[in-house]
């Protein structure tokens, strides 16, 4: 059963790549991909941990463990169980390393009030905006307890009022929609699974979808001019096209809802199968431990 849990984790980790081919909007695409990626990493880790669990019984009492038939818990022998434990440990190390790097990067990109030229609440960003004294064209959102938007003096000087409002609304959308969490999940997914072909391109696709999602939110919620947002992107030398709110006018299929429901059902079924298999394996392991005593 532990092997089944690991296989379900692998299946979940393939969903983000599959989601890039479906005709669904950027918000649904990112949400499903991130849910599947987070669940896949967790389920695969649990599966590898359960696959290594017979080592506990083996080390406790090898002779008694042989009589229990541990291969129904995990295929292979002690060497296979040890390899599964090593892979589970490496995966956990990579995930924790990614989380630590993200926390450090967030602290480094934050602009304290004392270091900003000026700061004020902006109604388009719906957050505090801090101006950085630099000649570079910079605009980004900093999540966290003191979430804020950072723009440079050079960028503010090079944009018109409408373009600046569009940029602030876009960065504010990142904060309101908690896109930092989605990007963190994608970074973790790429860190653990990025050695496989197609994963890096799938992650890049979903990162662009995050930007498209923020563009749609900025146009719809803050009522900024879509053309001004496009001009601002050109100033920032970003070639991501600004999508319209209507998916059918973006070249998408007229039935994106069906694709989203189908993919969501697949993810839910895989998570349910992983939960059942993991529970069954833990029950067998508990029974085996009780038998040794």
Strand order, main sheet: write it out.
1-2-4-3
Radius of gyration: 24 Å
- What's the overall average pLDDT, rounded? 78
Beta-strand fraction estimate: 5-15%
| Coarse morphology | elongated
Secondary structure: number of strands = 4
- SS-derived structural category: alpha+beta
Distance between the termini: 23 Å
| Number of discrete helical segments | 11
What is the domain total for the residues?
Answer: 2
Low-confidence stretches: 239-258
Major beta-sheet overview: 4 strands, mixed
Percent helix: 55-70%
Q: Order of SSEs, N→C?
A: HHHHHEEEEHHHHHH
Describe this structure in words.
Helix content is 68%, strand content 7%. It has a four-stranded mixed β-sheet. The relative contact order is 0.17.
